[in-house]
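hey can u check if this looks right to u? its 141 residues, i copy pasted from the old doc so theres a chance i mangled smth
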Amino acid sequence: MKLYESGLIQGRAYRVLEHHLSITLKKFDLLIPEWKLLGTISTQRTIQPAQMAPLLGVSRPFITNLINSLIEKKLLESTIHKEDKRFQNISPTKKAEKLLTKIEDKVGVLINSLFEGLTVEERTVYMKVLMKIIINGEKLR
């Protein structure tokens, strides 16, 4: 297989996943970046907005826009940090927690459909390979 063919296959797989994920999240009035941010905040409750940008691979202004959008949708709450007023604490609302549970169920069904025919071991290897690509790519920066 030629290298460009590998690139085509990887790109096509990403677009398939992104397309179906986007359709699934649209039913919940969420975009993919909003879902990623909401999930990140939900699991890492002490994270500051400035730390989210590199984690999600986007700019700080984009994070601010996502946060504002999720606050508008009543999925996030923002409070000023007690000791340092320059910082804000962002936390998920109860509505967000319930929504994330529903989304996890739907996305789980989607992933199972996309990974149909793969064993648990093959799925695990796939995720390990992706993590190695990410780590190696970050070393090249």
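The beta strands are 76-80, 88-92.
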